[in-house]
Design a protein that fits this description.
The complex is a heterodimer of chains A (267) and B (255). With 267 residues, chain A is an all-alpha fold. Chain A has helices at residues 8-24, 34-51, 59-90, 94-98, 104-134, 145-170, 177-188, 203-208, 210-223, 229-260. The longest helix of chain A has 32 residues, at 59-90. Chain A is globular and about 65 Å long. Chain B has 255 residues and is of the alpha/beta class. Chain B is built from nine helices and ten strands. In chain B, the strands form two sheets. Chain B has a six-stranded mixed β-sheet with strand order 6-7-8-3-9-10, sandwiched between helices. In chain B, β4 and β5 form a beta hairpin. In chain B, α3 (94-104) packs parallel to α5. Chain B is globular, with a radius of gyration of 18 Å. The chains are: A mainly alpha (267), B alpha/beta (255). The interface between A and B is large, with 41 and 40 residues.
Chain lengths: 267, 255
C-alpha cells in the first residue's frame, strides 16, 4: 500500500482509538453529557421565565432553546477534534504517531469521524432534555435545520484547526483555547439574538463569522419565515474562507513545530 | 548493498547553537549501525531529522528513495521507530495498540504479525494488559513489537535499553539480533551501553558536538582512538566535551 494515498484503514483506526479513550475515560463524557444538560437547563429556564413576562411572546423561548441546541453542534464538533489532539499530547503519544506513514489529514479525519459520534450524543442529549424538560421539539423546525447544522459542524472543525495550530506552536499553554475560544465565538455569533443586538463596535466582526449567518437562518425557522438561503450561502462562503485560512495557519504552525524541534515538549 | 537511508550534510541550529553540524552518512541493506556519542552530541536531533519530525536547516534525508519532507509518508512505510522514553498511550490494551499501529502501516488484519511479534519477545501474556500498567521493560518490548509489525526495511531505536534490568536488556538484544538475522532489515540504534552496541552492530558512528568524528567497524573505531573498546572511545569523547564551553553544548531541542 502506498504511504501517500488517503487510507480509510488509518482513518478508522484513529477513530477506534478515540472510541476506546471515551469508553475507558468516563470523565471524557462530561463534554457530551454534563455540559449539554447544564446548558439546556440554564437557557431553557431563562426562556421559560422570560416568556412568562407580560408583553413578551413565546418566541424568546424558541430562540433560546434553538440557539443552545444549534450551539452544541459548533461546541461538540470543535471540542471533539481539539480534545482528540490534546489526548495525544496528554498521553505523550504525538511522537509515536508522527513516525508512522499517517498524514495529518488522515489523523484529523479519524478524530473528526469519531467526533461525529460525540456530536450526535451531545446534540441528541440537548434536544432530548429540551423536549422532556421544556416540551420543545427542535425537529418541528423542519429540514431547514440540516444545512444550518452542516455549516455549524464544519465551522466547529475550522475553529478547531486554529486551536490545534496554536497548540502545536505554543505548547500546553494553548490548551485553554480549546474551551476558551468558544466563549469568544458564542456572543459574537448571535446565537440567541440578531447582530443588531450587539454593540455597534463588534458588529463588523460578527458579520464575517459564518456562525452569525447560520444562527440567523435558524432563528428565521423559529419565526416561521422559512429557509433563508441567502444567509446560508453567505455562511457557506465564509466557512470556506475561514477553512482555507485555518488550513494555511495549521500548515504554517506545523512547519514551525518541525523547524524548531517542539516535539521535545512531548517526549 | 542497496542504500536504504541517506543523511546528506544535515545541519540544525537551536537558538543560535549548532546541534548537528554536517552529519552525512548512509545506511545500507542489512547493516546494523550504532549512532553513539555523549549527551548533547546530537544523536536524538539527528534521529528526529531522519524521521522527519525535525526539519533540517540544511541538508536532506532520503529513505528507500523517498526524499523528505515531500515523501515522508512513503518513507515512513519503510521505517519502524521505538525509543526507551516513549510511553504507551493511555486507555489502550497492548493488543489494541498493536492493531492500531498495524493498520496505520496499512495492514488490514495485523493479528498474525501481532501474535508473532509478542511471541518473539516472550510477552504473549501481555496482549490484554493496559499500556499504562506495564513495567518500563515490558513497555520497551511492546514498543519494539509495534515498530516491527510491518517488517520495516530500517528499524530505528533510540536508547531502547536505557533503564532496563540486565535480563530484560538481554531479552531485547536477543530479539533484535533474531529480527535482523531473519531478513535484510537494517538497524540504526543509539545507546549509552557500549557493550550492547559492540554485540549488536557491525558499524558505529560517533558524534561529538554535532559532528561525525568516527565512522567504521567498532574495533576499527576503538583503534582509531587508541582505545581497547568503544567504552574507552566514549569516555574520551565525554572528557573532551567537558572542555567545550557550556554555551556550545548541544542537546535535544529546547522546549
Amino acid at each position: 500500500m502506498s504511504g501517500r494515498s488517503l487510507s480509510w484503514l488509518r482513518i478508522r483506526s484513529v477513530a477506534r482509538r478515540h472510541a476506546y479513550v471515551l469508553r475507558r475515560g468516563p470523565h471524557r463524557l462530561f463534554d457530551v453529557t454534563v455540559w449539554p444538560v447544564v446548558d439546556v437547563l440554564l437557557f431553557g429556564s431563562i426562556g421559560a421565565f422570560v416568556s412568562r413576562q407580560p408583553g413578551v411572546g413565546h418566541t424568546a423561548y424558541g430562540y433560546l432553546l434553538t440557539g443552545i441546541v444549534l450551539w452544541h453542534v459548533v461546541y461538540q464538533s470543535q471540542i471533539a477534534l481539539s480534545t482528540g489532539v490534546l489526548e495525544e499530547t496528554w498521553s505523550r503519544h504525538i511522537l509515536s504517531l508522527m513516525v508512522t506513514p499517517m498524514t495529518e489529514i488522515e489523523y484529523a479525519a479519524g478524530v473528526a469521524l469519531f467526533g461525529l459520534v460525540k456530536l450526535a450524543l451531545g446534540v441528541g442529549l440537548v434536544a432530548l432534555v429540551a423536549a422532556l424538560a421544556f416540551a420543545f421539539n427542535v425537529t418541528t423546525l423542519g429540514w431547514g435545520l440540516v444545512p444550518v447544522m452542516v455549516i455549524l459542524l464544519v465551522t466547529g472543525w475550522v475553529i478547531s484547526l486554529f486551536v490545534i495550530g496554536c497548540m502545536f506552536r505554543f505548547g500546553n499553554g494553548a490548551e485553554a483555547l480549546t474551551w476558551g475560544v468558544l466563549f469568544a465565538v458564542l456572543p459574537l455569533s448571535g446565537v440567541f439574538y440578531p447582530v443588531s443586538a450587539l454593540p455597534a463596535l463588534v458588529r463588523p466582526i460578527a458579520l464575517v463569522l459564518p456562525t452569525t449567518h447560520a444562527f440567523d437562518a435558524g432563528r428565521a425557522l423559529v419565526d416561521g419565515r422559512g429557509m433563508q438561503w441567502d444567509q446560508i450561502i453567505i455562511a457557506a462562503l465564509s466557512t470556506v474562507a475561514f477553512g482555507l485560512l485555518a488550513v494555511g495557519f495549521l500548515a504554517r504552525m506545523m512547519k514551525i513545530f518541525r523547524r524548531r524541534g517542539y516535539i521535545s515538549r512531548y517526549t | 548493498m542497496q542504500e536504504l537511508l541517506r543523511a546528506h550534510q544535515l545541519v540544525k541550529d537551536f537558538r543560535g547553537t549548532r546541534a548537528v553540524d554536517g552529519v552525512d552518512f548512509a545506511l545500507h541493506e542489512g547493516e546494523r549501525l550504532g549512532l553513539l556519542g555523549p549527551n548533547g552530541a546530537g544523536k536524538t536531533t539527528t534521529l528526529f531529522m531522519l524521521l522527519g519530525i525535525i526539519e533540517p536547516d540544511a541538508g536532506w534525508v532520503e529513505v528507500a528513495g523517498h526524499r523528505m519532507p515531500k515523501g515522508r509518508s512513503e518513507a515512513m512505510m519503510n521505517i519502524g521507530f521505538s525509543a526507551g522514553y516513549m510511553p504507551l498511550p493511555d486507555r489502550l490494551r497492548v493488543s489494541e495498540l498493536l492493531r492500531m499501529y498495524g493498520e496505520l502501516y496499512g495492514m488490514a488484519d495485523p493479528r498474525p504479525q501481532i501474535e508473532a511479534g509478542l511471541e518473539r519477545f516472550h510477552i504473549s501474556h501481555l496482549g490484554r494488559a493496559m499500556g499504562n500498567e506495564l513495567s518500563s521493560g515490558q513497555r520497551t518490548l511492546v514498543g519494539i513489537v509495534k515498530a516491527t509489525l510491518h517488517r520495516p526495511k530500517v528499524l530505528v531505536l533510540d536508547e531502547p535499553t536505557a533503564s532496563l534490568d540486565p535480563d530484560v536488556a538481554l531479552q531485547v538484544r536477543e530479539g533484535l539480533a533474531e529480527l535482523c538475522g531473519e531478513g535484510r532489515m537494517s538497524l540504526l540504534i543509539t545507546s549509552h551501553n557500549m557493550r550492547e552496541i559492540e554485540s549488536l552492530c557491525d558499524r558505529v558512528i560517533f558524534l561529538s558536538a554535532g559532528r561525525v568524528v568516527a565512522d567504521n567497524a567498532p574495533r576499527a573505531v576503538a583503534e582509531q582512538f587508541g582505545r581497547g573498546d568503544l567504552e574507552g572511545v566514549f569516555l574520551q569523547l565525554a572528557a573532551d566535551k567537558l572542555l567545550i564551553p557550556r554555551s556550545q553544548e548541544t542537546d535535544r531541542p529546547a522546549s
